[in-house]
């Protein structure tokens, strides 16, 4: 029986690369995003053409009923959910100074990035703890956090707060689920070339040229996907509550 993997936001950018990678590894992949299936048809068909088994679910992770439906549909496919990748995330619609940040934007960003991640993890964890262990493990959960969990950006404070929160979600669920045979780890991308960073491309082009990152290039979605797939793999059974930066060395303090 194929292992199943839910990838939220698994249709574009980093999530699409994760879906592709896990599909290539033989998972039955369940990408979830907000749009109708037709909107993602090109991506989904390209996976199927390459031989992947794909089941798309429309799900706004900020919505409780959508989350319930996602977990129900995913579990109905093989009776198990082996992997959850909490990747769905948004940046603020407007980069506003911290002194101008609105509650509306805070609620939107934390509702998707933090609340969505926390409560979807809770639902999937309930499903996983009822599963028979396979090769000693009931499941693996990987959160796509961000360097913004630690790096201050005063023009998108709500995003930083949401990712700092995700970091504690990783810690809490790792602690709670360790005895259940479920690992929970986190990958923190730096600056990755996707739709999310498209609007600030010139800014980061300049910063990269000025040497902001030790590895002087944009990160690629595939760079992140490789690390996520590693944390999903059975090779990782004695590591939980950890994170890895995928940021070209951005986290290194330099003099
Ligand atoms: N790009 C970077 O430099 C960077 C850096 C650090 C961390 N990250 C994190 O990496 C993750 C992916 O980012 P990305 O750059 O790949 O973003 P992206 O290109 O904008 O793609 C975002 C994905 O999330 C989905 N999504 C958005 N809101 C959703 C919701 N409410 N419910 C379910 N799915 C939703 C989108 O699907 P729709 O088609 O439904 O919109 C899309 O598939 C995010 O958590 C982001 O915070 C990114």
The SSE string, one letter per element, is: EHEHEHEHEHEHHHE
Q: What name does CATH use for the topology?
A: Rossmann fold
The CATH homologous superfamily: NAD(P)-binding Rossmann-like Domain
Poorly predicted sequence stretches spanning 5 or more consecutive residues: none
**SS content category:** alpha/beta
- The portion of residues forming beta strands comes to 5-15%
List how many beta strands DSSP finds. Answer: 7
Calculate Rg over CA atoms: 18 Å
Give structural notes:
There is one protein chain. The longest helix has 27 residues, at 103-129. The protein has helices at 13-24, 41-49, 64-78, 103-129, 157-177, 195-198, 201-209, 221-232, and strands spanning 4-8, 28-33, 57-58, 83-86, 139-144, 182-189, 243-246. Strands 3-2-1-4-5-6-7 form a seven-stranded parallel beta sheet, with helices on both faces. By secondary structure, it is α/β, with parallel strands linked by helices. The protein has eight helices and seven strands. The protein has one domain: Rossmann fold, CATH 3.40.50. The model has no long low-confidence stretch (mean pLDDT 98). α1 (13-24) packs across α8, α3 (64-78) packs parallel to α4 (103-129) and α4 (103-129) runs parallel beside α5 (157-177). It starts with a strand and ends in a 9-residue tail after the last strand.
Task: Summarize the helices and strands and which ones pair or pack.
Blueprint: E1 4-8, H1 13-24, E2 28-33, H2 41-49, E3 57-58, H3 64-78, E4 83-86, H4 103-129, E5 139-144, H5 157-177, E6 182-189, H6 195-198, H7 201-209, H8 221-232, E7 243-246
Parallel strand pairs: 1-2, 1-4, 2-3, 4-5, 5-6, 6-7
Bound molecules: NADP nicotinamide-adenine-dinucleotide phosphate.
